[in-house]
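FYI - complex with heme C, inputs then prediction.
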Amino acid sequence: MRSKIITLTTTLTIAIFMITNPSKSTENQKITMPTEELVIEGKKPARFPHSTHLAIGLDCGICHHDEEHQPLSSLAIKVMVDSSTLHCVSCHNLKHPDKKLQKAKDIFHALCKNCHKAGYEGKNGPTKCTGCHIKKSK
Ligand code: HEC
Ligand code: HEC
Ligand code: HEC
Ligand code: HEC
């Protein structure tokens, strides 16, 4: 009985430590570009492959910017503490001062669809809904 309590206490202590120190194991990890295709979640999830866009020569700052709308370089991203600040909707939400830049549809279509339509260095991206949107992932 006593040893069971000790085991239980130890397990709990470790569990609590892991929950309160989630960054411990990733402390020295630098933030890098995801190599796998991302799914931008929302009411109409869409896929986004970084690799295709890097291959055509786009800089990180074409899409990623800071709170002053200054482009973010790959170095600036690498030394970030928290990659969640890269998430577009962390700024583009109902608190954003410009009404036209509050909705996911508006900002993504403005950035993604406009370039796909206009083209970049002679290449065009998909403009049909299903070129980006996928079936609900959940
Ligand atoms: C170039 C890529 C791209 C194309 C093409 C595209 N979309 Fe989107 N769209 C996105 C992304 C990225 C989002 C953000 C994901 C989300 O919020 O669900 C989005 C969001 C949306 C939303 C907002 C969902 C919400 O939160 O209310 C709607 C509606 C939508 N798209 C409809 C369409 C329709 C209809 C078409 C075709 C006429 C289309 N989209 C074509 C990329 C695209
Ligand atoms: C063509 C646009 C575009 C370019 C260019 C681009 N990204 Fe992204 N990146 C995105 C989008 C869109 C997301 C998803 C944001 C979201 O979920 O709101 C993202 C997400 C990320 C994330 C967060 C992944 C996660 O899930 O936490 C990192 C890190 C990142 N990008 C790094 C980079 C780096 C480094 C470069 C340059 C080498 C780069 N990106 C170039 C559009 C781009
Ligand atoms: C740290 C906060 C922040 C993040 C994260 C952020 N934005 Fe912005 N964004 C801004 C600000 C500030 C502006 C400028 C608004 C203005 O000038 O009125 C802006 C402007 C824009 C514009 C309009 C400018 C133009 O050139 O037409 C688009 C489109 C846009 N952002 C898309 C995105 C996308 C897509 C992402 C994710 C890849 C993103 N933003 C991430 C803060 C942010
Ligand atoms: C500055 C221009 C530009 C921006 C911004 C951009 N794209 Fe693209 N995208 C392209 C081009 C060009 C291609 C076609 C590349 C090729 O054919 O090699 C492409 C291809 C794609 C493809 C098809 C790739 C494949 O491998 O099947 C998807 C999906 C896509 N883009 C989604 C997005 C989304 C979502 C965003 C916004 C978060 C975005 N793109 C922003 C230029 C852009």
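The mean pLDDT is 87. Residues 43 and 136 are 8 Å apart (CA to CA).
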